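Hi L.,

You mentioned the student needs an example of a multi-chain input paired with its predicted structure. This one should do, with 464 residues in total across all chains.
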Amino acid sequence: MRKAYHDELDRIAESLVDMTHLAASAMSRATTALLDADVHLADSVITADADIDAQREHIDLLSFDLIALQQPVATDLRVVVTSMRMSSDIERMGDLARHVAKVARLRYPNSAVPPELRGTFREMGAVAELIVEKTGSVIAARDVETARAIAREDDAMDRLHRELFEQVTSKDWPHDTETAVDVTLLGRYYERFADHAVSVAERVIWIVTGEWGDEADGSHEDAEDADASPAT
Amino acid sequence: MRKAYHDELDRIAESLVDMTHLAASAMSRATTALLDADVHLADSVITADADIDAQREHIDLLSFDLIALQQPVATDLRVVVTSMRMSSDIERMGDLARHVAKVARLRYPNSAVPPELRGTFREMGAVAELIVEKTGSVIAARDVETARAIAREDDAMDRLHRELFEQVTSKDWPHDTETAVDVTLLGRYYERFADHAVSVAERVIWIVTGEWGDEADGSHEDAEDADASPAT
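Structure written out for the whole complex:
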């Protein structure tokens, strides 16, 4: 019984790690599609989001069966329920990558990103990819130290997001409001992507240590947005 | 055992309904704070979000205990796990109301909303309030018919959101980009608020009928955003 339980739990964790790879790939390709105005790549991200959704359904089914058949209590139950929440977070990360891809597709053959902001978006894409890959390692190894470090990556994202916000709202913004709107939403998609990664990491910390981060309830941005660009 | 189980389940449903009232009040007050540039009201929304978060924790604890002590399977288990997801949705609705309040506070003593868009935001606020109150009734009565009708309220929100988007991105937009950024984010907060209400309604449909709406996985906007303003 215990063996079966732990095998099932391992399968769930592996599926979660797979999901993080899919989300990382999606955001990486979405960023490239955005910067290179590559509509085919954008379409591939949009289409592939169904795979992430399917992976989440798969994890839900595994988790349900595990609860129903093994009837875990206490810590074991906490792990299973938390896994279902992690799959929600990662699925949402996939949605956000898809949103980025949709903006890329919408502005094709132009790029939605003005030249002077390309560097910032490139960095946001790199941070997003790094943070979700680290999240995968954190899940695989139940690595609390790396989980805590993910908050620092998120600080980097918040800084980039703030920079973006300052440029868009500066009096010298040389572009039209359509571009400002695109940049505003894109910035929010990347920021939320990182927030969900932090939520996943904090859920792992909770599983391992029983400590709730302030944000292990999944509303990570709440603590952060006091310091971030206030309207975002 | 069954009696205790159903009593517990009723308590969870009541707590969820309470949460919808809190979220409705938060969004209603946030909208007023936004339109009237009422900083005290905005602060009250920001402070009161902790109550919604606490309510969600309470529901999580009830649900955990219920699973651990009663070991429900099949439909019963589905109901409990789905309740935890509904509490996540409603908590997030509270966060979005708080975001609206923060924009109101940030622009005080001015209003973040230009005069010609006040009507649109007033309508978005009214739709948001209506949709979350209906969501409460849907939970309380497990009312599938009303749950299905909530998708129509959401269509109204999407229409308003699209209108907003068209105005902000029109060539004649007479305001600065800071205002465009505020309006863009505010529009998204209201739209996401309605999306989460639809998710809750679809989860109730699932509990009652076993039918998954396309969006019962919580990613409601995915189906919608194909028709909505593409970048939002």
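You could point out the following to them. The domain at 2-224 of chain B is CATH 1.20.58.220 (Methane Monooxygenase Hydroxylase; Chain G, domain 1). Chain B touches chain A through 49 residues (CB under 8 Å).

Best wishes,
N.
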